[in-house]
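Quick log. Single chain, no ligands specified.
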Amino acid sequence: MNTMDSNLNPLLTRHSEALALFGGHVHAVRENQWQAPTPCTDWSVRDLVNHVTVEQLWVPPLVTEQRTTEEVDIEGDVLGDDPVAVWDRAAADAREAFAAPGALERTVELSYGQATCAAYCAQMVSDLVVHAWDLARAIGADERLPEDLVNFTVREVGPYSADLEKSGLFAAPVEPPPGADVQTKLLALLGRRV
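-> predicted structure:
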């Protein structure tokens, strides 16, 4: 990826930061932690990393190849014997696909219909940020999220937060504690108990 491009485009910058945040936690997973539970109901650390890796694997076919979700079949455990290496490759390929000239101006066909690549990238940033917290909590890493990424995610999910629980992919919102900071309020909105 051309570093200059991401510096000129705030969305690409946030995407790179979110990939690095989640990836840093992936690299910190110890061998005995892959089956540990996470805040995501029914997901182990491996399941969570697999989910986010699969999300990255979808990006090149949808963005670069302009294929539809029906034409792409990426399911199951993709991590194999070296989850960290598979994550690194998937993250690099997703970053490259979004950063390609003109990529963010394209339209992609997602499971719920058409969207701009910019909107798709913004959703991916938010997913990475929230799951970075999930992974940090599961492995005992620092749970503080960078302020820029928290603020970005609040702006991204705010308009459709009421529909997230209905999707079946998010738990019901929980009441944040009194005096909660922005990160805690965001996590509570997405069903996480901090």
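The first strand starts at residue 107 and ends at 110.
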